[in-house]
Amino acid sequence: MACRSRITPVLRRASLAGLVRTAPASGASRTALRCLSTAGPRQLRASGPSMAKFTTDTYPDIKRDERFTQITPEHVQFFRDLLGKESAVIDGVTAEVAADDMEPYNGDWMRKYRGHCKLVLKPASTEEVSKILKYCNDNMLAVVPQGGNTGLVGGSVPVFDEIVLNTSRMNQIRSFDDVSGILVADAGVVLEVADQFLAEKGYIFPLDLGAKGSCHIGGNVATNAGGLRLLRYGSLHGSVLGIEAVLPDGTIVDDLCKLRKNNTGYDLKQLFIGGEGTIGMITAVSVQCPQRSSAVNVAYLAVESYEKMQQAFKEARQQLGEILSAFELMDLRSQQLVQRVRSSKSPLEGEHSFYCLIETSGSNSDHDAEKLGNFLEDVMGKEIVADGVLAQDETQIRNLWSQREGVPECLGHWGGVYKYDVSIPLPDMYKLVDETREKIDAAGLRGDSDEFPVVDVVGYGHMGDSNLHLNVAVRRYDKRVEDVLEPFVYEWIAKVNGSISAEHGLGIAKKNYIGYSRSETMIALMKQIKNLYDPNGIMNPYKYV
Amino acid sequence: MACRSRITPVLRRASLAGLVRTAPASGASRTALRCLSTAGPRQLRASGPSMAKFTTDTYPDIKRDERFTQITPEHVQFFRDLLGKESAVIDGVTAEVAADDMEPYNGDWMRKYRGHCKLVLKPASTEEVSKILKYCNDNMLAVVPQGGNTGLVGGSVPVFDEIVLNTSRMNQIRSFDDVSGILVADAGVVLEVADQFLAEKGYIFPLDLGAKGSCHIGGNVATNAGGLRLLRYGSLHGSVLGIEAVLPDGTIVDDLCKLRKNNTGYDLKQLFIGGEGTIGMITAVSVQCPQRSSAVNVAYLAVESYEKMQQAFKEARQQLGEILSAFELMDLRSQQLVQRVRSSKSPLEGEHSFYCLIETSGSNSDHDAEKLGNFLEDVMGKEIVADGVLAQDETQIRNLWSQREGVPECLGHWGGVYKYDVSIPLPDMYKLVDETREKIDAAGLRGDSDEFPVVDVVGYGHMGDSNLHLNVAVRRYDKRVEDVLEPFVYEWIAKVNGSISAEHGLGIAKKNYIGYSRSETMIALMKQIKNLYDPNGIMNPYKYV
User: Fold this and answer.
1) Fewer C-beta within 10 Å: chain B N or C terminus?
2) Is there a cis peptide before residue B145, judged by omega within 30 degrees of 0?
3) In what order do the strands lie in the sheet with B163-166?
């Protein structure tokens, strides 16, 4: 096949019209595009049901914990006096509040969860958080820590009348050391703001995800978000160097270490990473940020089977080695739905069972282009990959990424999505999607017209992390669909020793299913930690373990 | 300067006789050499005092905890019955044991710490560890978990008559998945054995350190070892995916996750990483192992000042980017001592204030050689680097690494070493070495003849991690030296917000100094965790926090 010069790997082939050499693209501009392509949680509300059912209706078995006090005007006055600013308190206890003002804090963006919260507090400092929590703990007032409220498991919205502690006013970058790359920032800094700040310094935030324009880094850390860069930069358990957090009794955990190495005692901050706000509230984080790569290349490839996809992944890892920064899987159906919603065309002609997006990030664009060119020539020569396109400029990079990043948004087009975010050993990973679709079909629930609740069952995700997003796009939430899905999906995952929550966390959605991924001993040890730090149980109740 | 072809960066310069293009070298063979060059703990005993002072003499303020039971013949019989095998029990309680048989478990390799242990147990399974710990907990018998006993802070040897629980018989690799790169292995597997196993599969253990031929991976994880690859592969908090551990009450913590992403509850395993065996004993670990790089290059450079060293580091990070795998600092004195002990010559002519070792690891040797060649040309052109040599084959790579890895071993030549392993923000990092030397000199303690206790004060370490090893080589341990060093060193580090333990841990050496790096609140929270898991305090007492 292909004639290839040593440095500019321009592959030519009848079916590969769009495949040309990539130009280096700055991460910063890719970032800009990502924002455009991911509409952001709020916009999704435009389509589908206007307001979600109350969580208390969806989960009638959950009863309000009688230990918690009802909020009184006196409580509200205390918070008003403490926070001073009018805008720091949204008070539905002593006053009428327009639904539009309260709803963004009570409901999640997927319209699956909705609480009865009547009081939102927006502290501006760690000291204010400390005083609020101490008061709540002393008065048995339950609270929900909340960042950008972009979660997928109902973890950041109340169930009953818990007070929302929102981090949006704690949004300062505290310091950045441009020799070590260590960033210290308030919990309420928006991920994209942090990343753009870093881009100007030649650094990158070690985490990236579709909701970056809205989510807060405190929430990212509290939920141990995984996202698109984990393959390259590892998990937050490694890249978060320090945390400042407030315990329910008001104690400030001052562990905001700015050193890569610090072996002086138990690494307590790790309990807050992925703790989902159940033992304390993160108020600031210290993060080790890698240098930003000057050269970014993106290829979008078509593959005929999941077996070949695994081969392509192995080859990519071997041949692209240290520059591989993403290997994202998308099935045909996920791509067809994106194109249907957007009335757009596929980047590739014809239909193929699977697609993947490969990103490389490196310090030398010639070297990276050569590695990627060699890789593409090799996998196409071996007929592992059927077709492909290589972005040649920033616009094309953005467009290819939007094929992957647009999936969650487009799936919501018909009204709702049942989302499962799971870790499964690679060889078995995609089987779950096929088997779930078969079960939905056997129950007669999937079809093209309104009488069928299910639009389609699709799979996509982070192949590099064995992390599958099994999504069931629906026209409405329907008990019959739920009965097919659960516990079937969880049992399937337990059978292959997977995880029922790869990166989205437990929240309220998976609280009752943790037994599929964790032993009784582990769950008991977790409850012991919860009781140690939050003996009154005021932190984010009714959720997690 | 330099004529340079595009692909083979052969730099030519009068002073750079040895600087030629590197050939790719497999990590496996580098590994083999490392073993030769680091003599290993035991051999160091040949020189210097034949036996260390008892820790109880060095630290007369530490009193035996009266709650602990004295070991009786009945206890010994229980353990004999449980473990079966004769070789699994070294019994100095009911029998005479040759000093040579007990000493390796009672004393550390630096001859600084020595306990009064009379019973060593070598369980072969997690279940045996569980039964031992439960029995010890029920009978108030104190224990010290011990791996390869290569620690530097006295954490793995007893102080009084604690029972040693040694992991050497738990040495099996349990599983390896060559698609995901996830290794599951017993705690007692020697680090080098694990790494060689991985080398055959094309993978690498994400940790490397001088003692790799003796240390156990369980001990590495228990002490959160940092080492030579942290710059590239991050800390064990990120790369350890799961842990199996036994709590003092015999509970088996089965958290041996084999998934890159698993957000299902508090990440309890993190408490055991760096917990130094004080809340439980690690019996197995699951580790995410990166792919081994096919191309490894090593350069050894001379730099005239610490300011220029910082510039060289910044340039290396920028220009070598994703392939930079080590940037190790060594001062002139550290190199002179190595050459004196070995009667060898420096790889470079003349004397320069500082040296650094730069390693790159990548997937394409041509690309890597070009990047490194460009970098060297650039930093020499800018006169940041004064001189340098680039290894051209595996033997040269080994020889250059031995200039760095040989430092700790050679410093022990005269009898002993006061070792400080600290994290300090880069701009201030080396100042500590100069100021310490000035203080030692002002006290008249350093000189070339036997009347002076101090041979020299040197600094070296992991520049890429802001991690300095301040070492004071001595002819004998001397109270006057200690009085100059402490608390001076710790106060100095606290002043610049550094860490008194970057990677070596606390053990007994730093137990009393943690207040220089941690607040009272943090120390109280740590003690709370200790009391939660080990209410009887039997796990590795008299140490840590």
Assistant:
1) N
2) no
3) B89-91, B119-121, B163-166, B143-146
Express each pLDDT in B340-381 by its tens digit.
999 999 999 999 999 999 999 999 999 999 999 999 999 999
Contact assignment for A467 to B261 by CB distance below 8 Å:
yes
Cα distance between residue A301 and residue A314, in whole Å: 15
Report chain B residues whose CB lies below 8 A from the CB of A177. Answer: 425
- Summarize the confidence of residues B436-442 as an average pLDDT: 98
Question: How close does chain A come to B369, measured CA to CA in Å?
Answer: 11
| ipTM score above 0.95 | no
| Amino acid present at A490 | Y
**Contact across the interface for B253 and A322, Cβ inside 8 Å:** no
Q: Name the fold adopted by A295-507.
A: Alpha-Beta Plaits (3.30.70)
The minimum CA-CA distance between A426 and chain B, rounded to whole Å, is 8
Place of tokens 């943690």: B514
The sign of the torsion formed by the CA atoms of A222, A226, A228, A231 equals positive
Give me the sign of the Cα torsion angle B81, B87, B88, B94. positive
The CATH code of domain A61-166 reads 3.30.43.10
Angle (CA) B357-B361-B363 rounded to 5° is 160
Residue with tokens 């390799």, as numbered in its chain: B109
Is B261 in contact with A314 (Cβ distance < 8 A)? no
Minimal Cβ distance to B521: which of A202, A254, A257 = A254
**Cβ–Cβ of B254/A521 closer than 8 Å?**
yes
Which of A246-250, A424-428, B157-161 bottoms out in mean pLDDT, i.e. has the lowest? Answer: A424-428
* Chain A residues with CB-CB distance to B251 below 8 A: 521, 525
Closest residue, chain A, to B513 (C-alpha): A264
The 10s digit of each residue's pLDDT in A360-369 is: 999 999 999 9
Sequence-ordered list of residues with C-beta below 8 angstroms from that of B357, at least 6 positions apart, any chain:
B298, B299, B300, B301, B326, B327, B328, B330, B400, B401, B403, B404
Using an 8 Å CB-CB cutoff, list chain B residues near A226: 261, 263
Give B173-288's CATH code, choosing from 3.30.465.10, 3.30.1490.270, 3.20.20.70, 3.10.150.10.
3.30.465.10
Domain ranges across chain B: 61-166, 173-288, 295-507
- Residues B397 and B25 sit within 8 Å (Cβ to Cβ): yes
pLDDT given for residue B41 in this prediction: 30
Q: Do B257 and A498 touch (CB under 8 A)?
A: no
Range list of β-strands (E), A189-249? 240-246
pLDDT digits (tens, 9 = 90+) for B230-281: 999 999 999 999 999 999 999 999 999 999 999 999 999 999 999 999 999 9
Report the side by side order of strands in the sheet with B295-303.
B387-390, B295-303, B354-362, B324-331, B454-462, B467-474, B416-423
Q: Do B371 and A362 touch (CB under 8 A)?
A: no
Paired strand residues for B107: B114
Nearest residue on chain B to A250, alpha-carbon basis: B521
The average pLDDT across A417-445 equals: 96
Query: Has residue A85 got a pLDDT over 90?
Result: no
What interhelical angle do B191-201 and B27-37 show, nearest 10?
160
Average pLDDT, chain B: 90
Of all helices (H) and strands (E), which one includes residue B194?
helix B191-201
